[in-house]
Amino acid sequence: MAEHSPAKKLRNQVKGFLCDVSPIKDTKKPYFDAILQNEGEYSKVVAFRPEDHIHFHNAETSRSLVTLEDVVLKPSVESSRKLDVFYTHSSKMSCVRDLGEASQNSLSARPQCVQLSELLNLDTKSKRVNINAKIIQEVSKGNTVIWDGRYLPKTEYTVADSTGYISLTVWCEHNITVGEWYNITNVSVRKFRGKTSLTTTKNTQMVNITSQGTAVAVKVPTETIKCDIIGANIKNIFICPRSHTLKDVTLSSPTVYCFSCNTHYKSSAIIRKISGHLDLKPETGNVVEANIEDEVLRSVLTVEPAASREDIIQSLIALPPMQITVRQNIVVKMEDVPQEAEIKSEAELHVKVEPEEESTDFYSLPDHGILISSQDRKRKSTD
Question: 3-state secondary structure string, 215-247?
């Protein structure tokens, strides 16, 4: 939560388009927040005038260019944003509508569909568009902490139409099928470090449609290698039932307090997510560093509630060589190495081979007490 009484600073005026206007928060000292977009840059706005909440909401809905006057500006601590804007009790908001822009956006947040080549070749300011596109490939899947402290599911796809392809980030849970065409409305166009991409907003809708023709051929490079995990570093992220990240969590305590919710929760209701990176040594070549998310990590390790960060790291390093699929420096799959078996025809067999009695001696990984690897689970199931 932002501070309620920002120190006196030079008052300024800012312009842009409002989005992600939150509900009014905190009944004792009410405030709300929003994002201000302007020429590819994003600023967080914290407003302490609840009576203006309806004006912010209307400006977001109509996609009107707004001017915020007499605001306090501070450099943002978030790398994705340049400034934090404090809209205090002396601040004012006004809407500025250019006639040409008003005509172009007469459908408000539902502009006409555009081709991807237009977005890729246009040095565009941040705005929202509609597209018809085919979901080509799921590039990565995980969770990310966003600007308001919530921990949300995030999936990156490559989408394409007949003119080009682009990266699409989809927030929150969704039902999308790779290989299908979708009409995607109210997606935000962003340009970062010269690369144009799309990201969903809270108003985005995705509707499955019939094929719109042949999409351009594109595939994100994916490599599957047999390698040994020689290094690991992970971090624990604790999430409240309303998806806010928590700090200084002691799960042995009966309750955990969430500052964002202003609520005490049972420790058993807290969600634990794990992420980090691995150092992978292939059979040939140099060491590869790749990020790993909770879902993939738990596919090879069963993490008990009492497992510490050090326990998880030791168990990862103790795993035998694995077959690991990496896409854009992200581990998307981890599997046991397939057993190689040479199959010969009966004509090649000169002696009768009697079946051997299965050995009961198995190589066992170091037991850390509270983590079980996929190797261990398979062995137990055969006992």
Answer: CCCCCCCEEEEEEEEEEEEEEEEEECCCCEEEC
